From TrEMBL:
The chain crosses the membrane at residues 7-28, 34-64, 71-91. It comes from the Eukaryota. This is Uncharacterized protein. The keyword Transmembrane helix applies. Keywords: Membrane, Transmembrane, Transmembrane helix.
């Protein structure tokens, strides 16, 4: 009888140890899965933020370049217009002087 009780106790201890090991393994697997998911989410968020920042910087640079080019175009057009007006005025003045000189 005592030997049967010892065998039964041994079986119970083995079952308890197996259950504890299984529970520990499952908990460790769940923790590993959660950590992996969190790491993946953090990496995805960082990548998205970096991409958004790069896109915003590129857009700002393009807009600044376009504005600078437009300002330069306006400045060139104004300078060319002033030069043309001055040249036309000088040509007109010279032509009037020459024609007045010829007539007089």
């Amino acid at each position: 009888m005592q030997q049967q009780q010892q065998q039964l106790l041994l079986v119970v201890v083995v079952v308890v140890v197996v259950v504890v090991v299984v529970v520990v393994v499952v908990v460790v697997e769940v923790v590993v899965v959660v950590v992996v998911v969190v790491v993946v989410v953090v990496v995805v968020v960082v990548v998205v933020v970096v991409v958004v920042v790069v896109v915003v910087v590129v857009v700002v640079v393009v807009v600044v370049v376009i504005v600078v080019l437009e300002v330069l175009i306006v400045v060139v057009v104004v300078v060319v217009g002033i030069v043309v007006v001055v040249v036309i005025h000088l040509i007109d003045k010279c032509y009037c002087s020459i024609s007045t000189g010829i007539q007089g």
